[in-house]
Specification:
The protein is α/β, with parallel strands linked by helices and about 220 residues long. The protein has one domain (about 5-210): Alpha-Beta Barrel (TIM Barrel). About 45% of the residues lie in helices and about 15% in strands. It has ten helices and eight strands. The chain has an eight-stranded parallel beta sheet, with helices on both faces. Helix 4 (about 80-85) links the parallel strand 3 (about 70-75) and strand 4 (about 90-95). The longest helix is centred in the last third of the chain and has 19 residues, at about 195-215. The chain is globular. Keywords: Carbohydrate metabolism, Lyase. Pfam families: Aldolase. Homotrimer.
Length: about 220
């Protein structure tokens, strides 16, 4: 049985969702495992990764007892959402408003993170029942946009995705972001030399930055 409340708490407590979008199956698996070793408790395998469902199945079985939230990303329809849940995903993520995905996630008590860009889209995403609104692509908007949107829509849990770095993480949190979607800073840390301990260290660094940023340090 899925425990959505506990899974949402893990995302909220760490403030980090790792998005793995790589072109090689084995590399994606190694990056995921190394990031989990670094303390990541929530990660998304995008459906663009070769054998994404197989990776999700492997990770969900391996880390079930540790309570790691294994999610599927780039979910564009209910059929893919259902397949991801059957593979073991306890979180579904889409780049845009996808009512069918949200409905499927809610039916099986998986966390739903649905993409939006404008205030209208953000409100429609909330009304559709998403747990978290993914602001995407965030790098074209910046932290000030989150602060502006949160003024009239203060109840919105926003997760910006795109261009998030340790250097600007605090700005996003200060602007009102509930959590941050992280990608290449962690996932590509080992690409030059294949040393996956660098992925682990990058994960530790980002989690440290997130914790300090939210404490106001």
């Amino acid at each position: 049985m899925f425990n959505k409340i506990e899974n949402l708490k893990k995302i909220n407590d760490t403030g980090i969702l790792l998005v793995i979008r790589l072109d090689d199956e084995q590399e994606a698996l190694k990056v995921a495992e190394a990031a989990i070793d670094g303390g990541i408790l929530a990660l998304e395998i995008t459906m663009s990764v070769p054998n994404a469902l197989g990776i999700i199945k492997t990770l969900s079985e391996k880390y079930k007892e540790k309570g790691v939230v294994i999610g599927a990303g780039t979910i564009l329809d209910a059929e893919t959402a259902r397949a991801a849940i059957l593979a073991g995903a306890t979180m579904l993520v889409s780049p845009q408003l996808n009512p069918d995905m949200i409905k499927m996630a809610n039916r099986y008590q998986a966390v739903s993170i649905s993409g939006a860009f404008t205030p209208t889209e953000i409100l429609e995403t909330l009304e559709a029942g998403a747990d978290i609104v993914k602001l995407f692509p965030a790098e074209f908007l910046g932290p000030a946009y989150v602060k502006t949107v949160k003024a009239p829509l203060s109840q919105t849990p926003i997760l910006p995705m795109g261009g998030i770095t340790p250097e600007n993480a605090k700005e996003w949190f200060n602007a009102g972001a509930s959590c941050l979607g992280i990608g290449s800073f962690i996932t590509k840390a080992a690409q030059k030399d294949g040393d996956y301990t660098k992925v682990t260290e990058a994960a530790k660094l980002f989690l440290k930055v997130a914790k300090e940023s939210r404490l106001g340090n």
